[in-house]
Amino acid sequence: MTKMQKPTEMLSAEHQNILKLIAALEKECGALESGKPIDRAFFTKAIDFIRNYADKFHHAKEEDILFVELCKDSVSMHCNPTEQMRHEHEIGRGFVKGMEEALNSGSRQKLIENAQGYVQLLQEHIYKEDNILYPMADEALDAQMQKSILNEFGNAEKKRFAKGVKEKYIALAKEFGKRAG
Q1: I need a labelling partner for 95 at 20 to 30 A (CA). Which of 28, 48, 142, 157 fits?
Q2: Which residues, in sequence order, are CB contacts of 104 under 8 Å at separation 6+?
Q3: Dihedral of CA 102/108/110/112: which sign?
Q4: Nearest to residue 46, comparing CAs of 95, 11, 91?
Q5: For 76-109, how does the pLDDT look when each residue is reduced to its tens digit (9 = 90+)?
Q6: Can you state the percent helix, strand and coil of the chain, rounding each to 5?
Q7: What is the pTM (predicted TM-score) of this model?
Q8: Contact (Cβ atoms closer than 8 angstroms) between residue 24 and residue 180
Q9: CB of 172 within 8 A of CB of 18?
């Protein structure tokens, strides 16, 4: 019998795709600081990836499903960092909006500032989720609840992404990974 995947394992795997983007953004910011022209196509793809894969796909599963379960009275944790994680998601959305505005206005410095802010935030955020929140969730949620959350994740994926869209973003993450080299 195969071991059931935990919801947190699925989310951590998605983090690996997001970290590929983060590495590419970090590299691109360094190139911009060295005088390279703004690569509009790269930043357009990056913003699309963040909004659709990181936010509508990944963060939505956390915020709408996992965090909701972790906040129920029946779940016992010594502390609950989900509100902080939600707050950091909102800060990240602000950086993405700032990147888009800077890209549209051609403001190189604002683009760099917002992209670097997003990079730093997400590196720290993912570390906290993978190493603090998710182990707490694994301990607090019984096997039946974890199975239920996985089912809800599957339903959310089907609802948010048409067939082939998830694969499109995973391919884009691989492209970012190659770019980050």
Answers
A1: 157
A2: none
A3: positive
A4: 95
A5: 877 888 999 999 999 999 999 999 999 999 999 9
A6: 80, 0, 20
A7: 0.93
A8: yes
A9: no
